[in-house]
Amino acid sequence: MPNIKSAIRRTRRSKQQALVNKIRKSKYKSAIKQMSVYINSGKMKEAKSFLPKFHSQLMKVAKTGSISKKTASRKISRITLKINSSKK
Q1: Total domains present in the chain
Q2: Structural domain range at position 40
Q3: For the segment 39-67, what is each residue's pLDDT rounded down to a tens digit?
Q4: Hey, CA dihedral for 7, 10, 15, 18, is it positive or negative?
Q5: pLDDT of residue 87
Q6: Element of type H or E holding 4
Q7: What is the pLDDT of residues 11-50, one digit of tens each?
Q8: Half-sphere exposure of 47 (CA within 13 A, CB side)
Q9: Which of 7, 18, 32, 66 could cross-link with 2 by S-S, CB 3.0 to 4.6 Å?
Q10: Closest by alpha carbon to 30, among 1, 53, 6?
Q11: Could you tell me the end-to-end alpha-carbon distance of the chain, in angstroms, rounded to an integer?
Q12: DSSP readout, 8-71?
């Protein structure tokens, strides 16, 4: 248990930030799951319409630092390739 005043504040702040990161990660995970449901079930029309929202959600999470920007870009790229390749 921290005894110094600044350490107490820092502990409180880190708990708050952990909660914020957890919420952001859940948005990230739900977007990934939603897109994979569309792709695995073969609903490419829905997947293609969900793609801009998917891109937006992942970049919002990456902007805050909960996940790496490179990770978000990689996920978006791979999903886009799956959608485009299945269309042909």
Answers
A1: 1
A2: 5-87
A3: 999 899 999 999 999 999 999 999 988 89
A4: negative
A5: 63
A6: none
A7: 999 999 999 889 988 999 999 999 999 999 989 999 999 9
A8: 22
A9: 7
A10: 53
A11: 60
A12: HHHHHHHHHHHHHHHHHHHHHHHHHHHHHHHHHHT-HHHHHHHHHHHHHHHHHHHHHTSS-HHH
Say if CB 65 and CB 25 are below 8 A apart.
no
Residue 84, both tokens: 């485009």
> The domain spanning residue 57 has which CATH number?
1.20.58.110
The pLDDT value given to residue 76 = 95
Residue 51 near residue 83 (C-beta atoms within 8 A): yes
